[in-house]
Amino acid sequence: MGLLSRIKRSVRALFGGIIESTENPELILQQTIRDMRDRVPELNNSVAQVMATEKLLAKNKERLETQVVDLDSRIKASVKLGRDDIATAYIGQLGQAQMDLQKTSQQLEHATLASAQALKARDNYVLQMQRRTAEAMQLINQSKQARLQEQLAATMESFQIGDDASTFNEMRDKIDRRAAAAEAKLQLGSASVDNQMQDIEREAMDMQLQDKLLAYKREMGLLPAASGGNAPQALPAEGESGASRN
Predict the structure, then answer these.
(1) What angle do CA 91, 92, 96 make, to 5 degrees?
(2) Position 174 in a domain
């Protein structure tokens, strides 16, 4: 294989690959459907012209048939009147009209057949267009589904479940540790305040109990009377007032 042939083959392969990669099946099928639908009016116009020719020939045939009948009547009337010259002229016109009628009848037969064939071709084309359109729409839907599946597959390929799972686990552990530390600090703070309050209340109660104990001992003479203003005063016994003690 020559160098030029190899270059041509490489160029064709290169541009063929580029064109194939840029082709969108959905857009191409949609354009094909539009092209088929656009040809329907043109086809209808062609069929209408064929049918118009048929109708025109049918009118000409009807006119020639009327002309033949009229000429025949005129010939008979001329013969009755003894006008052979006029009858001869009418006979010539009648021959020409009969020849025209024969040709027109043949043309009308061909035009009628052409109209039937044109209508049949138009109907077949419309039927084929409808089938192709339905098939194209199905292919377009399949193409859309395939494109969505490709996008989903690409997304799944780029989605690293292991990395994201480890990230979630790491963040969950960090949040759990922070929550546990905050809860422990709150418990420690509450316990410290509660303990301090309990200690104060316990100490106050012990002081009251000790004061009452000393008062009972002094009242019973087990302890010497308190002297000085700093000594705690004995509590009065039940039923005694402050005046009786003084």
Answers:
(1) 115
(2) no
The DSSP secondary structure of the chain, one letter per residue, reads --HHHHHHHHHHHHHHHHHHHH--HHHHHHHHHHHHHHHHHHHHHHHHHHHHHHHHHHHHHHHHHHHHHHHHHHHHHHHHTT-HHHHHHHHHHHHHHHHHHHHHHHHHHHHHHHHHHHHHHHHHHHHHHHHHHHHHHHHHHHHHHHHHHHHHHHHHHH--HHHHHHHHHHHHHHHHHHHHHHHHHHHHHHHHHHHHHHHHHHHHHHHHHHHHHHHHHHHTTSSPPP-STTSPPPPPPTT--HHHH-
pLDDT mean by block of 10 residues, the chain; 246 residues: 62 52 72 84 88 93 94 91 90 92 94 92 88 84 80 68 64 82 72 68 83 81 63 46 42
| 128 within some domain | yes
151 lies in which domain range?
A: 20-161
Which CATH number fits the domain that encloses residue 102? 1.10.287
User: Considering its fold, how many domains does the chain have in total?
Assistant: 1
Confirm whether 180 is domain-assigned.
no
